[in-house]
Request: fold
Amino acid sequence: MTQLRNTRERLLAIGTEHLNAKQVKALAIQKQAAGKADRRERRMQSRFSTFSARTAKEAQRISTNAGRTHMGGKMKERLL
Reply:
């Protein structure tokens, strides 16, 4: 994200100067690469949060049913 912001700032700062084609192409490539990295990072964060939520839900389910057992099709408290 920082790289994308820096590239944008450089493009705006250089906007008044005369640019050659190589400079423009290099900045465009940097911007494209930064955008791809940002999308990849967001995708991974989304996958992690989905996995984390599932894991938390499963842990809660296990802890809720820890003292219970199936007997005759019904959940009954386990006698210790």
